[in-house]
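Thread: FE2/S2 (inorganic) cluster complex, take 2
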Amino acid sequence: MMRTFDMVHSPAMDGPRPPGACRGRGIRLWCPGCQGRTGVARGGRRMAGGVCPLRPARRTLHPCGPGPSGVIPGASVLPDPPLWSPPMLPIPSGWFCIGASETLPRHAVRPLRFAGQDRVLFRTASGEAVLMEAYCPHLGAHMGHGGTVEGETLRCPFHGFRFDGSGACTATEYGQRPPRVRAGTVPLDEQDGLLFAWHGSRGEAPGWHLPPTGQGSWTAIRLHEIPLSTHPQEIAENSVDVGHLRAVHGYESVQEREPLRTDGPNLEARYRFRRRLEPTGRLGRLTVTIDIHQWGLGCAMVDTHVAPMGLRLRNYVLAMPEDASRTLLRIGLRVALPEVRGPVRGAADLAMRLVRDASFPGYVHDVMQDAPIWNHKVFEPRPALARGDGPIAEYRRWTEQFYPDPAVVRGTAPSEAAE
Ligand code: FES
Ligand SMILES: [Fe+2]
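Output below.
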């Protein structure tokens, strides 16, 4: 089933807001189709008939069928993502995971919605991954639908023009010199079996890079995808939201082991808590310590130590903004390998993969407890914080660096107030 979105709500024009609509505090509203490029939906003004004038084809959003990864125990608790919620904040700068490397073999071509734009992702014959504007500069065909890789170029399905990894048009099929045009490309990074794309909210080039996280003695990563109607800011905020660890996840005796630390685009938080071994708690409880390493608002790695078992897990929380109000969340898991060499190494790797796969449904279950709240909440720029919440205010100040106007996090951006 597909759903359509409602018109953007304007308190001035439409009266009291319906649940989940604009809160009337000057939060910028964008059409989900054009992300504000038409300007028609800015400031809560009405879109005629609920249809974006630039991208009417994007009127239907969010397929509500089963997720792309099939059924995982615990995953079925997620209700359909809501229709479409008003975008809360602009898309922040940073690196965002756009998928596993193995899902993009040589010669593969994929359409991708990333950071409010339609893109085409492909891998050339030599193995270079490229993320490019989807619409051909010639006559606008979507190259993610029918485009093919030829050597180091992408061939447009409409008239056969070819574009190299820099986006430059290198050939036509007319026997003439190609036009001097270039499709825009997005910086990519590929490491530890994952593909990351850069988004610069001010159009800036990457100013920092992600560290490798999968090297050394870890199993391969297992991933699961969860489509959400939320923003990376909200997903990352749960890393410091101490109160929700008990209220949503049922963790007990939650302690901050060290104060929150921030350094440029990096944030670190460390906690200890007790959790039930299984939902009823009849089989007992475990003490768990976690070290959260967050890079920008898109990438978090959580090193988890389950002391009584000596088990070390590396959890990933990878948020990819499709638009300002829709995020494809990828969660991943690796398990530490024992320090063994020689012929038993293969057996140890296999055993730890089994441990990873046995642990994975529990991880998915925990994240799915957050999902309904993310899907239905609004971003509250002036939260009524209470003692015990955790370092949310400090987190919010750290996040300001990722936006073109830091004041959007506080809901006091001058451009919004003027609208
Ligand atoms: S539209 Fe792409 S080659 Fe003509
Ligand atoms: Fe959570």
